[in-house]
DNA sequence: TCTGGGGTCCTAGGACCC
DNA sequence: TCTGGGGTCCTAGGACCC
C-alpha cells in the first residue's frame, strides 16, 4: 500500500527575472536577464531564445541581441521570498524551505479543514499571484523527490499531480538528468553505460549503481529511480554554513588589495552570523587560481565564535599560507565560508577567565561581552544567577 | 563556455583514541 | 617489538543544486 500524494513542491518561476518584470512593466513580454558578467536568472522570453542560467553575459547577448540586462536587486528578491514563505506557512505549519524560491509543504493532515492537496495547491498559486504578483508552479506527489520532479515538469505556471498509481508511467521514461542529484558528471557516467532514462537506471542492481557512482550517491539515485524516497518534510532544517565570495577577474592583485577584500568578506559574514544569533567553529578559505583550479584551506577552532576579529585573524593566517601558490599562479576568486554553525545559546563557550576566588560576576560578564558580543551577556548573567551553576572547567583558548 | 554567488552533501586519508 | 579493528575528528577536494 503506497500512501497518498500529499507532498507539495512549490517553486517560483524564473524568480529574479519575474520580480524585475513585476516591478518594471516595460520589461514584461521582453527577454530579461538578471546579472552582469554571468546570467543569474533569465525570463521565459530569454529562455526561449536559448539563454540559460550561469551562461556568460556576452553569449546571452549573442543569442538574443534585444535582451535587457538588469543588475540584481537582492533586497527585492529577499522581500518577495519572505512574502511567499509567509503564504506557505499560512497554508500549513509543515514547511521545509529549500532555497530562496522553493519549498516543500506537507498537507496530508489538512483534508478536512482545507480540502484535497490539489485544492490547497490551487489556492496557494492564486494567493501568490494576487498577493505577491508572481507565478509559482506546484508539483504534488507521495514523496518529496516526485513532487520536485512534478513541479519542474509542470513549469511554467503549472500544477501537476502525480497519483501513486501513475508514478512509474510518469518517472521511468524521463531522462536521467531529471533525477535530483544527477548533474553533468553523473549523467556522463550513466550515458557511457548506455543508460539514458530513469527506467534503465532502475533496472540495474543497486550494487552496480554503487560501484559506478560511489556508495552513497549510487544507492540514493538508484532508490529514487525505484520510487523509494523515505525523507519526510523536515521543518527543523537550519543553515549549516554561511559564506561569501568574490570573483576577481584575471588582473594581478597585491597582497594589500587581497587583504582589503578578505576583510570586507569576513566583516559581512560575521555580521550575518551575529544577526542570526549563530556562532561557528570552522573557517574555510576558498580560492580559485589564475588557471581556474579551485582550492580550499580550513581551520577548526576549539571553541565557537562570532567575533569578526577572531574570524579575520584565522582567515588571514589561511591566506598567508596560500601566498606562495597565489604568487605563482595568480588568483581569480577569493571567498570565506563559516561552517559548524550553531545557535549561540546552544553551545558551551570557553572563556579565558581566571576563576580564582576574587573574580566577580560583572568582571566575568565583561569578558563575555568582549568575546561574544552584548547579546550573550543576558544569557550568561542568567546562568550566573542559577544556584546550581558553577564556573566551567577552563582551558587555554586559541 | 573564457567561467557568479549562495548553499548541501559525500569521499578519502591521516591523526588520535580505545 | 609487533600487531588488529572500530570510531571520531579534521582537512581538502569534488559533485550538485538554485
Automatic annotation (TrEMBL):
InterPro entries: DNA/RNA_pol_sf (IPR043502), DNA_pol_Y-fam_lit_finger_sf (IPR036775), DNA_pol_Y-fam_little_finger (IPR017961), DNA_polymerase-Y (IPR050116), DNApol_IV (IPR022880), PolY_HhH_motif (IPR024728), Rev_trsase/Diguanyl_cyclase (IPR043128), UmuC (IPR001126)
Localisation: Cytoplasm
UniProt-annotated binding residues for Mg(2+): 11, 101
Catalyses which reaction(s): DNA(n) + a 2'-deoxyribonucleoside 5'-triphosphate = DNA(n+1) + diphosphate
GO MF, any single term: magnesium ion binding
Enzyme class (EC, first level): transferase
Family matches, as Pfam families: IMS, IMS_C, IMS_HHH
Cofactor comment text: Binds 2 magnesium ions per subunit.
Example of a GO biological process term: DNA-templated DNA replication
Coiled-coil parts of chain: none
Known cofactor(s): Mg(2+)
EC number in record: 2.7.7.7
Site (Substrate discrimination): 16
GO cellular component terms, A-Z: cytosol
All residue ranges annotated as the UmuC domain in the record: 7-183
PROSITE patterns: UMUC (PS50173)
Residues the record marks as active site: 102
Alphabetical keyword list: Cytoplasm, DNA damage, DNA repair, DNA replication, DNA-binding, DNA-directed DNA polymerase, Magnesium, Metal-binding, Mutator protein, Nucleotidyltransferase, Transferase
Self-association state and partner proteins as the record states: Monomer.
General function of this protein: Poorly processive, error-prone DNA polymerase involved in untargeted mutagenesis. Copies undamaged DNA at stalled replication forks, which arise in vivo from mismatched or misaligned primer ends. These misaligned primers can be extended by PolIV. Exhibits no 3'-5' exonuclease (proofreading) activity. May be involved in translesional synthesis, in conjunction with the beta clamp from PolIII.
Family: Belongs to the DNA polymerase type-Y family.
Name by which UniProt lists this protein: DNA polymerase IV
Organism: Agromyces cerinus subsp. cerinus
Gene name of the encoded protein: dinB
Amino acid at each position: 500500500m503506497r500512501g497518498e500524494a500529499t507532498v507539495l513542491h512549490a517553486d517560483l518561476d524564473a524568480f529574479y527575472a519575474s520580480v524585475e518584470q513585476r516591478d518594471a512593466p516595460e520589461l514584461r513580454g521582453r527577454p530579461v536577464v538578471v546579472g552582469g558578467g554571468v546570467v543569474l536568472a533569465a525570463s521565459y522570453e530569454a529562455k526561449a531564445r536559448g539563454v540559460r542560467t550561469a551562461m556568460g553575459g556576452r553569449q546571452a547577448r549573442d543569442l538574443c541581441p534585444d535582451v535587457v540586462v538588469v543588475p540584481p536587486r537582492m533586497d527585492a528578491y529577499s522581500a518577495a521570498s519572505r512574502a511567499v514563505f509567509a503564504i506557505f506557512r499560512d497554508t500549513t505549519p509543515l514547511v521545509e524551505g529549500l532555497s530562496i524560491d522553493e519549498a516543500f509543504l506537507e498537507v496530508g493532515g489538512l483534508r478536512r479543514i482545507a480540502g484535497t492537496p490539489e485544492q490547497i495547491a490551487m489556492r496557494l498559486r492564486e494567493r501568490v499571484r494576487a498577493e505577491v504578483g508572481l507565478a509559482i508552479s506546484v508539483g504534488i506527489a507521495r514523496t518529496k523527490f516526485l513532487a520536485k520532479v512534478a513541479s519542474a515538469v509542470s513549469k511554467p505556471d503549472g500544477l501537476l499531480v502525480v497519483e501513486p498509481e501513475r508514478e512509474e508511467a510518469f518517472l521511468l521514461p524521463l531522462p536521467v538528468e531529471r533525477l535530483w542529484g544527477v548533474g553533468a558528471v553523473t549523467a556522463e557516467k550513466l550515458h557511457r553505460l548506455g543508460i539514458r532514462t530513469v527506467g534503465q537506471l532502475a533496472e540495474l542492481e543497486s550494487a552496480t549503481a554503487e560501484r559506478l557512482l560511489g556508495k552513497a550517491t549510487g544507492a540514493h539515485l538508484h532508490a529514487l529511480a525505484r520510487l523509494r524516497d523515505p525523507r519526510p518534510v523536515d521543518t527543523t532544517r537550519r543553515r549549516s554554513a554561511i559564506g561569501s565570495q568574490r570573483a576577481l577577474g584575471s588582473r594581478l592583485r597585491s597582497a594589500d588589495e587581497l587583504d582589503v577584500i578578505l576583510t570586507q568578506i569576513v566583516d559581512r559574514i560575521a555580521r550575518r552570523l551575529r544577526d542570526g544569533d549563530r556562532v561557528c567553529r570552522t573557517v574555510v578559505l576558498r580560492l580559485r587560481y589564475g588557471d581556474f583550479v579551485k582550492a580550499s584551506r580550513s581551520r577548526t577552532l576549539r571553541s565557537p565564535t562570532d567575533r569578526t576579529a577572531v574570524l579575520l585573524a584565522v582567515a588571514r593566517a589561511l591566506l598567508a599560507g596560500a601566498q606562495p601558490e597565489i604568487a605563482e599562479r595568480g588568483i581569480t576568486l577569493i571567498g570565506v565560508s563559516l561552517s559548524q554553525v550553531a545557535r549561540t545559546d546552544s553551545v558551551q563557550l570557553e572563556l579565558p577567565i581566571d576563576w580564582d576566588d576574587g573574580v566577580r560576576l560583572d568582571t566575568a560578564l565583561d569578558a563575555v561581552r568582549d568575546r561574544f558580543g552584548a547579546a550573550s551577556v543576558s544569557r550568561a548573567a542568567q546562568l550566573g544567577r542559577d544556584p546550581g551553576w558553577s564556573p566551567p572547567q577552563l582551558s587555554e583558548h586559541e
